[in-house]
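Encode chain A's predicted structure.
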Amino acid sequence: MKIHYFQRNHEKENVATANTMLLLSRLYQYSSDKFFRFLKSEFFSDAFEPEIVFNLQEKSVESIPDATITQESFKIVVETKMSDWFYTDQLLRHLKSFGDEKYKVMITLAPELMNPEKKKEFEEHLKEYNATQTYPVMHVNTVFERIVDAIRDVIDDRDYEMQEVLDDYLNYCYNDKLIIVSDSWKRMRVQLAGTTFNFNVSENLYYDNIERGFSAHDYLGLYKEKSVRAIGKIKAIITAVTTEDGIEYKAELGELTDDRKQQICKAIEDGKNYGYVMTGERYFFVDKFYETDFKKITPRAPMGTRVFDLSQVLETENLPETQEIAEILKTKTWS
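Encoded structure for chain A:
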């Protein structure tokens, strides 16, 4: 059984806050440099320098000391909700949490962004407040999914420990319905498929551990030998768990048919060829895997999952048919 880093099955927002803070603290412990890169990318300007700076013979007003060690002061205040239920009066009271820090950020965090009118109302009050302050407070309204994406942007394929932690946080977010995805139509999830690639393509089927979290996506890409070699559009997602009484199936998307049950059993048997003991997997059925060659131009295979916005990769909001997408990807690269 997979060990989880984060609590689950809690609806209270303080648990969501605690889990998010745990994620950020793990990132800081893993790499303070990547933690501060995350802060700068999401919440502060490029002028923000939170890390300790060592200087030799820095000139001051009346002298030049041999060395100085400095760090900019900052404070982040977080208000978490399980939906768009933010209240202006509560947020204004939170402003008293700030002191004389140079950089101040109030984060409003929820599964969905604030209602534009509600956000406008609060920020008008905040503007009045900031007019009385030496250092203003910046408001950042964000969602749990954006936190995941931003951290994924600062860690890389070699950060195995943080990749595992982030995957579990993503799993927690989906388990507790903290991520709402409405743009799955343009997302392609890329998975490593070296040993099982031929089977996946021939059966138009990919499987993964049921414990692994994933964001909603309509397309699935299979990575092998430094390139995404196949892409298919998902038409069904079915879980299969082996119990004492046999296999328990559950359709998460599409229909559970006898043909799909047979394909799952075939996949379980095929997995034995590679030493896989498959007792609980999630099966992704695509209409057809089309050959492509979407090359990775940087060293090393990706660690785990990569998600691409196909509208950005293809530079269009109107995605063509899957076969045409596969052809266009042959002309693209990624890192």
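The chain has ten helices and 14 strands.
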